Amino acid sequence: MSLFHLLILALIQGITEFLPISSSAHLALIHELGGPSGDAVALDVAVHLGSIVAVVLYFRADVARVLAGLAALVRGRLEGAESRLALGLILATIPAVLVGGVLAVTGWVDLLRNTQVIGWTMIVFGLALWWVHRTAPEARAAEDWRLRDALVMGLWQAVSLVPGVSRSGITMTAARGLGFERHSAARIALLMSIPITLATGGFLVMKLGRADLGPTFWRDAALAAVLAFAAAYGALALMMRFLDRVSFTPYVVYRVVLGVVLLVWAYS
């Protein structure tokens, strides 16, 4: 893989991973435009690692609460806000893990990675985010997240395994539909991204198997991870800072425009 292609891959992954515009769609398109690459899966692992480090660092206070909650759950203590948060994240992750396993075993995960699917999902789920954002009340804060909310959002998160849907986009849409204000919706959705992104990284590592990767790959992977981390942290910080004023509309417009371009390209 050329240095230019590597830089584009890392930056696009970092920027799109936690924005509601589908990082998997952008990665699939980059790999398609760049041509076949034997280390594509391995580099996907590297950029996913960089991205997840960014969100863990940004939400480090919440992550500390989750870890405290996990420790309490291990001791059999279900009461307390930390325990409920940790249990909610576990519950929200299960549907996506199960659906992801089915897609991987059946081979559908590769069949869905095509331009037509990405184009339609970019448009449909972008418009869904716009509609819910305009019509749903903003009456709840992140601290009001309950197990029922976690299950609902987890089921929708499973849908995001289809390229173009956007994991963060569909979970933000679900949270807004449940009445959470936009900042809390984004915060919950991004916390949900941590376990499922780790699960995705684990799947990619298993898919990688015992590939013979030379020293050049490890240099490229390290550079890709660092760039993805920087891009993800910057994009995440800007979105959370300006979300109260900018809302989700710019992301919706981007999704629809890109979706239309992809469909024209696919069907022409």
Tell me what you see in this structure.
This protein has 268 residues and is mainly alpha-helical. The protein has one domain. Helix content is 79%, strand content 0%. It is built from 12 helices and no strands. The protein has helices at residues 3-16, 23-34, 40-58, 60-74, 81-106, 108-111, 115-135, 147-159, 167-177, 182-208, 215-246, 249-267. Helix 1 (3-16) runs parallel beside helix 11 (215-246) and helix 4 packs across helix 5 (81-106). The chain is globular.
Q: What structural keywords apply?
A:
268 residues, mainly alpha, 12 helices, 79% helix
- β-sheet strand percentage: under 5%
Unreliable segments of 5+ consecutive residues:
none
Spatial gap, N to C terminus: 29 Å
Number of strands: 0
**How many independent structural domains?**
1
Give the radius of gyration: 18 Å
Counting DSSP H or I runs of 4 or more residues, the number of helices is 12
The portion of residues assigned to helices is over 70%
Main β sheet profile: none
Give average pLDDT, whole number: 87
Which structural category do the helix and sheet elements fall into? mainly alpha
SSE blueprint:
Blueprint: H1 3-16, H2 23-34, H3 40-58, H4 60-74, H5 81-106, H6 108-111, H7 115-135, H8 147-159, H9 167-177, H10 182-208, H11 215-246, H12 249-267
Concise structural overview:
This protein has 268 residues and is mainly α.
